[in-house]
Amino acid sequence: MRILRLFPLFILFLPLTKTFAQQKNYAIHTIAFYNFENLFDTINDPNTNDDEWTPKGAQHWTSKKYHQKLQNLSRVLLEIGSSENSNSPTFIGCSEIENRGVLEDLIKEPKLINKEYGIIHFDSPDKRGIDVALLYQKKYFRPTTYSNIPLIVYRKEVPTKALTKVESSDRTDDNLEVSDQNNRVFTRDQLLVTGFLDGEEINIIVNHWPSRSGGEKKSSPFREAAGTLNRKIIDSLQRINPEAKVITLGDLNDGPFNKSIKLALGAKAIKADVFQLGVYNPFEEMAKKGLGTIAYRDSWDIFDQIMVSQSLIQNNFNSFRYWKAGIYNKSFLIQTSGQYKGYPKRHSATEVGFSDHFPVYIYLIKEM
Prior knowledge:
single chain, 7-stranded mixed sheet
């Protein structure tokens, strides 16, 4: 067994008569998610709507800009979770990637190449060609099975043209598109990966749920369907093994209080409220405090979330358990001037930024 890192941690025990602290050693792994915001190469793909992200397109996307974007992202990925873990994340769920090739370029960046990341990726039905994927450090995780599970939803009550309209309160370039034949909404698959983390079985679901194109309320049923599908995937794993350790993460295009997460997925904000087979969402408490991963008109929300099954929040640490969560929002990721001062530093006409989302992360720890 390979151990990522041993570090001392004070665990507090509270008996009836006295309180004392005991120092123990723990192995730690960081699990992260990052929406890369339009990580496109410069090559025109005739099968997707990627014309904007080519040298002749609206973004004037050149090889120089593309490689600057890769450099920027690699800096972030190296540092996520570094406050508690000197190693970069063992797992990185990612969204808004055009294809496997951009990930192969990313993991070859000088800051990441020695980490020896593996890639699990499938092309999705999204018409812009953007997909989800999982990066993992090969020396700690051995995948055994993985599959892309389609989210099949249909638009029936509203004409197709309405989907290209965006309500003023919902700024997005991720417009929903619909099949002319059967009104199916093209969106991202949910990626399920199962494997062994230092000898323990772990299941990870990577998500990028349907956008708010057309307005939050009109598009909410699609994300509620995504939450229902996510719950079904978790249920299927737990039918095989009630103690299955499941981590679901992604850009959900909804905050922790929306129906897709609270009702369809059934996530809880307080550990004591999470019963067996339930799901815990540490990012709901952060949202209550006004924190966010994405902003619009000075209003913050947490679209990027990582949730864990009840089996990962038990009190003993003789196997990997959830420890704590965070939003990686360091100053270099924040716009310092202009209309979007204080927002995540995204790509602009004059500068290659990082993303319009902040990445998120959790730690798993185990007593050694």
